[in-house]
Design a protein that fits this description.
With 359 residues, this protein is an alpha/beta fold. The chain has 2 domains: 176 residues, Alpha-Beta Plaits, CATH 3.30.70.2810; 166 residues, Rossmann fold (3-Layer(aba) Sandwich), CATH 3.40.50.150. The protein has 10 helices and 15 strands. The strands form 2 sheets. Strands 1, 2, 3, 4, 5, 6, 7 and 8 form an 8-stranded mixed beta sheet that branches. Strands 11-10-9-12-13-15-14 form a 7-stranded mixed beta sheet, with helices on both faces. Helix 4 links the parallel strand 6 and strand 7. Helix 3 packs across helix 4, helix 5 crosses helix 7 and helix 9 packs parallel to helix 10. Bound molecules: S-adenosylmethionine (SAM). S-adenosylmethionine (SAM) binds next to helix 7. The site of S-adenosylmethionine has 21 residues, from helix 7.
Length: 359
């Protein structure tokens, strides 16, 4: 049986499954779901084996909100012996196909963390074994995901059980399990800073940072206190208007790049049309935030917006779809072309991050 394996935040398997099933059906590809509850893993077992590869080619991973990473299975679960694990993996792959890089992965759980030590030890001999068997290409230079290629995934469910599969570098996450490991900047005033850092990394291509994410730009941060998001804008050299009734960290105010206004983020509007970035982390009803964001963009108050939408306790997938649809409807009504992407990022919890701009 061929399946697509999807990685998501543990606890969000239902949303991840509902989404792949729906978007596969739009492409006339069908299957049934096996959810690994609280393990952040979803198996989508396909009715037609060829649809695994076809779907990975057709459906952009960027269009899936709840999936961090995915691959198509090459094998069912393989039971590995205590010794000669490398040989067992090499043997089950055969020599028909070659891959450009290897990702050793495991569930994003406490048990998975234990497994990662085991995987680190196995990684070097496994790579060597795969290269020797000509399964992994022997490139002189380091693998670069942006240059394309095929990735071999080894998902370890335990030290004895592994599932092998593949994905395409141009339509999968460049990070192991789709998780970017970001370092918390010691000068940032709150941990939420990592959310905006990850969002910029994820949504804005590096080669466009010089025009879309650069010093001298004006930015507005709605719901800014104590300043984790503002910190990300300041460190990129931007001038920030921070809106929140709560206090901002002194260290940020001392940079001279921040103007703090204690007022309601739903009432503030800039005096001039010179704001590039609008970022918003107000914990408010998602419908209200979605409406505010589309109004800012449609009225030309900002060029790009990055914001969080809080997820409800129940019916999360449906609610997200409704919130995003409301934004799309507003743009369509005004006959503007737009870019709108949403992702449940690694540093998000009960919210998703959305990026929107008119083009
Ligand atoms: C999750 S915190 C923001 C954290 C911030 N992004 C950071 O990185 O430090 C949410 C903030 O939104 C603010 N907030 C909620 N509703 C607001 C509103 N209507 N106007 C302005 N700020 C609001 C709260 O005071 C709170 O400081």
């Amino acid at each position: 049986m061929t399946s697509i394996v999807l990685y998501c935040r543990p606890g969000f398997e239902k949303e991840c499954g509902a989404e792949i099933q729906e978007k596969a059906a739009w492409n006339e590809m069908y299957g049934y779901l096996e959810l690994k509850k609280n393990q952040g893993l979803v198996f989508f077992h396909l009715q037609v084996p060829e649809h695994g590869e076809a779907l990975l080619k057709k459906l952009p991973l960027k269009r899936l909100i709840f999936t961090r990473q995915w691959f198509v299975t090459l094998t069912e679960k393989i039971e590995l012996p205590d010794y000669n694990r490398v040989e067992a993996i090499v043997e089950s792959l055969g020599t028909e196909w070659q891959y450009d890089d290897l990702r050793m992965e495991m569930p994003d759980t406490n048990d998975g963390k234990e497994l990662s030590k085991f995987c680190r030890k196995l990684a070097v001999p496994l790579r060597q074994g795969l290269r020797k068997a000509n399964i992994l290409t022997n490139k002189k230079t380091e693998f670069k995901a942006e240059e394309g290629g095929t990735i071999l995934h080894a998902l370890f469910l335990s030290g004895q059980d592994v599932i092998l599969g593949f994905s395409f570098a141009d339509n999968s996450s460049p990070h192991v399990m789709g998780i970017p490991r970001l370092k918390f900047p010691s000068l940032a005033p709150s941990r939420s800073t990592l959310k905006l850092d990850e969002a910029f990394l994820y949504f804005i291509p590096r080669n466009e940072w010089s025009t879309r994410l650069t010093s001298g730009m004006n930015a507005v941060d709605l719901g800014s206190a104590p300043g984790g998001w503002t910190y990300q804008l300041v460190r990129r050299g931007m001038m920030v208007t921070a809106i929140d009734n709560g206090p901002m960290a002194e260290s940020l105010m001392e940079t001279g790049q921040v103007k703090h206004k204690m007022m309601d983020g739903f009432k503030y509007l800039p005096m001039k049309q010179n704001v590039y970035w609008l970022v918003c982390d107000m914990i408010e009803k998602p419908q209200k935030v979605a409406k505010l964001m589309s109004e800012w963009l449609l009225n030309g108050h900002c060029k790009e917006a990055m914001f969080n939408l809080k997820l409800p306790m129940k019916g999360r997938y449906q609610q997200v779809n409704e919130d995003l649809q409301a934004i799309k409807d507003a743009f369509t009504e005004h006959q503007v072309k737009y870019e709108l992407y949403a992702k449940h990022l690694y540093y998000d919890r009960e919210e998703i991050t959305v990026h929107a701009r008119l083009i």
